């Protein structure tokens, strides 16, 4: 391209239209009104049609701007494929369900956080827990048929589930627990301690189906045979009889995710000057203030530290802690809920960060050492809190925000500054904690020498 054309194109006031001589991208690099990419960018562009007839790799293609389809049939097909992935995630890795919702929002669907998809998430998370408890190995029998909807007698007995050997053993385990409860014994449900990595207490997990020589033997003599569970052929009967063992308690974690918490932030993570000022206002030493600072006080300090320009005068002239609380209270009235909502939505970008959020909000010591029943209840509470958030106008707009500029517009400058301060301090503390693991003396050379010696001793020949 000639330099004069570029100079004219960047001159203010020069009309620039696609295909005109002032347009920087030549006409041959576009298809219709859209810019075109090259499948093989190393090829010298000659024209739109000249070489792609004999060199298919040199063909132009249009970059898709919107993934969402415009026709009704294509839209329904795309929604079906998404729900298919949603069911797989709910069955296999339930904590990735919120991640899928965020990915759908980023892909261009503004209805990702509407009741239509939140209700679907809640339903499939609950159903997937039920499927795991009755021994279902995979959620789908085929692309268009759920395994739980595979009926007996070649599909003619609608409502009567076609049980596999593993499913029969799983229902027998549930029957054992119910009969033990009926006799006044502890339930001792075999899969009560099952978690993401096996039994949470470290005991050996059983395998289904069981071999004939390795059948389950109840220590108190309770007996259940395959004939005893033959009448439990429908999902309704199974849920009615074993629902208290399968489904988590309603409201166990209600509202936990919208309750104000501060992650791993403590008073020691603030500036020394702010620590001394807080300790003086509380009439404590700095060390005692670090130990005794409440979560509510830390949230107030996050507002002060984040929005310094707003609270600078109050912070400098205050003589009691109540003055600080009174100054921040108007912003915290609605701000705390928006901050927790923004944290929920932002941490949905990665499953590991979401697991850390579950540990913080629900009090789990280790996500992977928590039972499947408790995790299901926590995930349902997470979806319920998302539904509560979207019920308000500000929360609904916050769910549509994908960048910080949009969040700041919804939350307001002061609340957004406190949100960013919390996220930055928490992430920086986690980063420093991770880096400190590698602060000791490195022994890479010794480790490498040891590994080389061990590899040298190993022979590829059997008996060598």
Folded structure, characterized:
- With 464 residues, the protein is mainly alpha-helical.
- Among the domains are: 3-62, no CATH class; 165-246, no CATH class; 256-434, no CATH class.
- 51% of the residues lie in helices and 6% in strands.
- The chain has 17 helices and 9 strands.
- The chain has helices spanning 3-9, 72-92, 97-106, 115-133, 165-182, 235-246, 272-281, 286-292, 295-306, 308-317, 321-346, 351-362, 372-390, 393-400, 404-411, 413-436, 444-457; strands spanning 30-31, 34-38, 60-62, 140-142, 145-146, 151-152, 157-161, 194-195, 198-199.
- The strands form 4 sheets. It has a 3-stranded antiparallel sheet with strand order 1-2-3, with no helix packed on it. Strands 4-5 form a two-stranded antiparallel sheet. A two-stranded antiparallel sheet has the order 6-7.
- Helix 7 crosses helix 8 and helix 14 runs antiparallel to helix 15 (404-411).
- Mean pLDDT is 82; it is low at 6-10.
The percent range for strand residues is: 5-15%
Strand/helix succession? HEEEHHHEEEEHEEHHHHHHHHHHHH
Structural class: mainly alpha
How large is the count of helical segments?
A: 17
Mean pLDDT: 82
Write the layout of secondary structure elements.
Blueprint: H1 3-9, E1 30-31, E2 34-38, E3 60-62, H2 72-92, H3 97-106, H4 115-133, E4 140-142, E5 145-146, E6 151-152, E7 157-161, H5 165-182, E8 194-195, E9 198-199, H6 235-246, H7 272-281, H8 286-292, H9 295-306, H10 308-317, H11 321-346, H12 351-362, H13 372-390, H14 393-400, H15 404-411, H16 413-436, H17 444-457
Antiparallel strand pairs: 1-2, 2-3, 4-5, 6-7, 8-9
């Amino acid at each position: 391209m000639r330099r004069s054309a570029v100079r004219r194109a960047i001159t203010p006031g020069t009309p620039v239209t696609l295909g005109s001589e002032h347009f920087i991208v030549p006409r041959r690099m576009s298809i219709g009104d859209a810019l075109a990419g090259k499948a093989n960018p190393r090829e010298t562009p000659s024209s739109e049609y000249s070489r792609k007839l004999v060199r298919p790799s040199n063909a132009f293609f249009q970059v898709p701007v919107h993934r969402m389809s415009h026709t009704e049939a294509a839209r329904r097909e795309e929604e079906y494929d998404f729900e298919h992935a949603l069911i797989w995630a709910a069955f296999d890795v339930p904590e990735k369900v919120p991640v899928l919702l965020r990915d759908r929002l980023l892909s261009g669907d503004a209805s990702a956080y509407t009741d239509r998809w939140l209700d679907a998430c809640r339903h499939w998370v609950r159903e997937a827990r039920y499927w795991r408890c009755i021994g279902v190995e995979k959620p789908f029998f085929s692309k268009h048929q759920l395994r739980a909807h595979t009926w007996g007698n070649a599909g003619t007995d609608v409502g009567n589930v076609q049980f596999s050997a593993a499913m029969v053993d799983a229902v027998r385990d549930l029957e054992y627990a119910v009969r033990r409860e009926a006799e006044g014994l502890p339930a001792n449900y075999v899969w009560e301690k099952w978690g993401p990595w096996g039994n949470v207490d470290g005991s050996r997990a059983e395998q289904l189906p069981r071999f004939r020589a390795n059948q389950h033997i109840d220590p108190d003599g309770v007996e259940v045979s395959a004939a005893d569970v033959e009448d439990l052929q429908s999902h309704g009967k199974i849920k009615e009889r074993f629902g208290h063992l399968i489904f988590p308690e309603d409201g166990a974690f209600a509202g936990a995710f919208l309750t104000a918490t501060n992650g791993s932030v403590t008073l020691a993570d603030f500036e020394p000057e702010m620590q001394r000022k807080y300790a003086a206002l509380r009439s404590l030493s700095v060390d005692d203030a670090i130990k005794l600072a409440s979560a509510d006080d830390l949230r107030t300090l996050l507002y002060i530290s984040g929005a310094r320009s707003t609270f600078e005068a109050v912070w400098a002239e205050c003589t009691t802690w109540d003055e600080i609380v009174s100054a921040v209270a108007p912003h915290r009235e609605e701000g705390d809920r928006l901050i927790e909502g923004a944290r929920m939505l932002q941490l949905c970008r990665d499953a590991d960060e979401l697991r850390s959020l579950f540990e913080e909000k629900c009090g789990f010591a280790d996500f992977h050492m928590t039972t499947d029943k408790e995790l299901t209840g926590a995930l349902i509470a997470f979806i319920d809190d998302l539904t509560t958030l979207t019920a308000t106008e500000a929360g609904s707009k916050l769910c549509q925000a994908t960048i910080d500029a949009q969040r700041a517009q919804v939350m307001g400058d002061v609340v957004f500054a406190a949100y960013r301060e919390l996220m930055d301090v928490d992430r920086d503390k986690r980063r420093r904690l991770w880096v400190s693991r590698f602060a000791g003396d490195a022994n890479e050379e010794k480790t490498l020498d040891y590994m080389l010696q061990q590899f040298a001793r190993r022979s590829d020949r059997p008996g060598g």
